Amino acid sequence: MNKTPQHFSKTIAENEVRLQMMFAFIALKNIEKKSKRNKCTVFSSLHSFLTHCANISKLLWSGKDRRGNYVGVHKMLDQDLADLLGLSAENFSLLKNKSFRNDLDHYDERLVEWIKQASQSSLPVCDCVIGTKNGEPTFYIRHYDPNTEIFTFMNRELDINAMKSELLELNKVINGIDLSSIL
């Protein structure tokens, strides 16, 4: 058995990716179950799903400076986990993209700018809306369409189904978790 520090670190990180994937899929299942009954649970589950996706992204593509500065940690994790696993960033562009997740992670920093944008607009502002958009120009704080699986946050759209597809592909690549009891 290989017990080098790099192998040990890779094994722990892979297991954490699997765990975060399981949490993400559980959050997705909650969205599907609750989308017609409880909008607070839907948006909480969407945020949870995206937070777990962000954690996976951080584990796979964190920069060297984000891996800690303890003695030997840089040496153990000299590469991104994605590189160690042979993952191509092009196949996981949504997972790797930090823009949307940073909006959620840095909500407090972005809030003032969003308030400014919404107040300078003549568009109506809607929040926590589930269903098909009405076709009228609107500034959506949060909107989810369960038919298209598009989540809108601060007027930016994210295709949840496409993110789910990337997670399913990642799960195959890393010989991940058994999803039969979750999906």
How does the overall form come out from the CA principal axes?
A: globular
Indicate the radius of gyration in whole angstroms. 19 Å
Strand order of the largest sheet: 2-4-5-6
Low-confidence stretches: 70-75
Which oligomeric form is depicted?
A: single chain
Largest beta-sheet details: 4 strands, mixed
Mean pLDDT: 82
| Distinct helical segment count | 8
Record field, number of beta strands: 6
Helix content: 55-70%
- CA-to-CA gap between the ends? 34 Å
Determine the strand fraction and express it as a percent band.
5-15%
Question: How would you sum up this structure, described in words?
Answer:
By secondary structure, this protein is of the alpha/beta class. It has a domain at 5-105 and 160-173. It is built from 8 helices and 6 strands. The strands form 2 sheets. It has a 4-stranded mixed beta sheet. Strands 1-3 form a two-stranded parallel ribbon. Helix 1 packs antiparallel against helix 2. The chain is globular. Mean pLDDT is 82; it is low at 70-75.
